[in-house]
Amino acid sequence: MSSWPGLDDPHLALVGNAPEIGDHGRAIDGASCVVRFNNAAGFGGPAGSRVTLLALVNRGGQARAWVEDDGFLDRPVIRHARTYLLAFPELSPDEEGAHERVCWTAPLRDKLAHRPVHVLPSALHDRARQQLAPRVSGTPNPSTGFLVALAILEGRSPSLPPIDVYGFGFAGWSGHPWDAERDWFTACGEAGRLRLHPPAAS
Known about the structure:
By secondary structure, the protein is an alpha/beta fold. It has one domain: sialyltransferase cstii, chain A, CATH 3.90.1480.20. The chain contains seven helices and seven strands; from the N terminus they run βαββααβαβααβαβ. It is globular, with a radius of gyration of 16 Å.
């Protein structure tokens, strides 16, 4: 965690991809560290144009599409990121089952080798599920946004100012426990660890 850039910057912004994020570009670009996700909707527009760390999903069809895209490294958010974070630990070949679980960690790491690449460990995923378990029935499947937020809070001093959170709409793939994640973010806001800026349509 200590090798992540800007983790202890006093002004850290976590920027999700909700299309109704609102016009927060100036505030986001004013942060000393900006964390974004995947295709970074709104980058270069209403969501601002700075990125310190870019978190990427490294399993399934989206990861495969990036690996096979000859222009992937030319995308502005890829070019501007100082470091990359892959959300899932690498699977061994005998663990690869259904298409959505196919692991693209190695080819993505190779493609992004011009900058530091970090991978969230299995233990972090275990702790994420533990955080969400009391709020859901069955085993929760945390979103990338939740995983990264938890990892940052675990590695960041609680004495620092709250992290500004933009563009988290808590909606998307039905397999993620969005209501439970919203409750966790709200609780962290009430505890002074996060400062939530809800999407305009919320």
